[in-house]
Amino acid sequence: MSTQVPETQETEESEAETETESVPVAQQQRQQRKTERRERVAERERERTEEEAASDESRYHLKVFRYDPEVEGKQEPRFDEFHVPYHKGMTVLDALIYARDHFDSSLTFRHSCRQAICGSDAMFVNGSQRLCCKTQLSDLEQPVRVEPLPYQEVVKDLVVDMEHFYDQMEAVEPYFQTNDLPDGELEEQRQTRENREKVKMSTRCIWCGACMSSCNIAAGDNEYLGPAAINKAYRFAMDEREGSDMKEHRMRILEQEHGVWRCQTQFSCTEVCPKDIPLTAHIQELKREAVKNNLKFW
Amino acid sequence: MYEHDVIVVGAGGAGLRAAIAAQEEGADVAIVSKLHPVRSHTGAAEGGINAALRDGDSWEDHAYDTMKGSDYLGDAPAIETLCQDSPKETIQLEHWGMAFSRDDDGRVSQRPFGGLSFPRTTYAGAETGHQLLHTMYEQLVKRGIKVYDEWYVLNLAVSDEEVPEDRTCHGIVAYDIQSGEVSGFRARNGVILATGGPGQVYDHTTNAVANTGDGVAMAYRAGVPMEDMEFIQFHPTTLPSTGVLITEGVRGEGGILYNENGERLMFEYGYANNAGELASRDVVSRAELTEINAGRGIDDEYVHLDMRHLGEERIIDRLENIVHLSEDFEGVDPLEEPMPVKPGQHYAMGGVETDENGETCITGLYAAGECACASVHGSNRLGGNALPELIVFGRRAGAHAAGKDLGTAEITTGKRGEWEAGEVDTPVAPGAVRGTDEDAVADGGKAPDGGAVAATGDEIVTRAVDAENRRIDRLMTKEDGVQHAEIRSEVQKSMTRHVNVFREKDGLKQALRDLREARERYTDVYVNDPSRTYNTDLIQTIETRNILDLAEAITLGALARNEFRGAHWRKEHQERDDENWLKHTMLSWNDGSPELWYKPVILEGEEKTYEPKIRSY
Fold it and tell me: Is the pTM of this model over 0.85?
């Protein structure tokens, strides 16, 4: 990173500076600050070179899953090892990018925003589902094992097919429905602060698929809606703007055989959710709603 | 070949809104996007949506603030359209169920934002973009709009008349990332570009890795001028190590910027004696860097943004996301200590030249959102004006492409109205490096080897598909050469060093030399991964070409503009020069030799004319 230094109004002091006394105090201070700054920059520069010299020792060891149905030599799944130079604050995603850009440009994984909002880079890191961009290398045991999300079909390397996840999401009518919109196009629906607070956590889902991939039930039952889709349904079912008729309609979707009752409260989804959504709690709340609605359950 | 009435390229806020609008007009519409819609970078927008909704506020005030913020380089018809449509569009989002933050009376909350004369920024915590993107994608699912997700659009299929204004866009060529299939997409009515910003031109950016300016580059090579490319917004508060955005909402809610000495710098050194931290972004970014350069930065790299005094309750209620971002990406708990922040590339004011209906000078080609330039933001965008831009102009482009009559646009596109030739003294020739078919495929579907001119839309699409297949084959069969990552990183380094917040002539010239070198190296680029399955190596190689075109346009415009306006600060020119520079920078590709020209700014609004004034906050 370089910061540009546009020259300030004053000219650089020449070596032959003799009239220090007549220079105003502010200017002297400025000068002193500049000198100090130059020294600090030089100091950091020295540190940096030392760091680089020592970088051989500070490498992180990664074992990364590789598979490509098309390329000979990669058709049998295998692990490749990468030794990536470490810097403070480095994430698993940074390490993967480094490995791809410096060692093997065919290393393939999804990523985009780098800040835990697009949900592209959920992977299986040291045995748990995590967002790579949010996972610090320093928190992990070496070698760091990076694998695609379990229970999903692998397309290539760390990329999995997300279609099933999207299908489950779409099965719960994941969109706002109400029969009671205000007439005016400038008139908003009212929603209490408490009600928004209630649905707030559920709206934070980024569709990364970590929860679905961590769920034993989803692994064994392809029709199970799964934590993400049920949470999406919760987001609307609990939103007071939809009205009670719609809530009933949503409950009917949720209390079917492969809906909320499949959940065995293992909390694995809650544990891996990178957005800290209380998924299991939401599912339990919907179960209670279903009972309250006096409906049979399997 | 796939066929639809309207094809939207990109699935962020503008793309989704355009698709919904086109469908509402009865068109058969499809979205083609290299990312699944919920992965779009609109999701990372934090701050809010400006809309004049309340008593005491008016669209006219919003327009005045926007024009002032633009440093009088915005076009009044576009600005007024934005401010008139924004309230309706914002409430439309609420009607679709968006989870806005609420006031005690249950109405949508609004907060103060930089450069605004009224607290008119509606928001959903500090994750407004995420809520907006998901709300709109929900509507897409509800309506059953077709999305070709993870299809990378390689090029536009445009007829090749002599002048761009006579050309027609008949569709696009796209590459299915999962299978490697290249296919034509015929658009019967129109193609809408909604591909977002070019943040990857820089190495310290808030933008996603996917933000490579693809739509702008494709339109440029098809003959649409790029407008005002030199105006790049550097957001004053990004995390130093990653470029992750810390919303202006922090300052909107009362956050304070301090230098190393604990001085409240915005007031202490007179950068903005009235608005302080809530001056517009260009002013605050320059203030921070001036502090850092004067030796008053912390570690000589950043300043402090402190919000502890707001209290935990208010922070969690309105800015919770910021607490997570600061902890996760900088290891700083902002409830306990101030956050380190420094300016980072955030937004491009310039882009594909359009009118206020989203139409470009090529028939059937539209652009909306950050990739477009109408121009709403002129030389500096106000915080909270990007999200309304997406929904207002996304809707307009979508409806117009589907055949809705929006009335005659007041902004002229292409060289149809008043324009003047520009001149810039460059150390090296800009534009195409002769002898690569890279540039030949990018000139509107010309017949190879001087063959017959394609007659029908289908033929033009087919021909564009053939050209893209040739390009991919060449990249894939090349055995050895340079890798895209190397070129991309050189470009990013040079741009970050020379074409940043502060710009000077020699640095800009150096950047042009570096870019020339990068272009020459790009002729030797090759794709190492032989696979047709999910080949990101290939996609990034093609993106890098787009980055090159945009980086050069930004630098050329910056070198030519001898004044200081908005986000464009020039060491040699410390004054705004309305007499000579109240005009838009236009750059046309012209088959590979960029042509610089200018068109006047429109300051005449519906009711009044905006008079350029001295801009202070």
Answer: yes
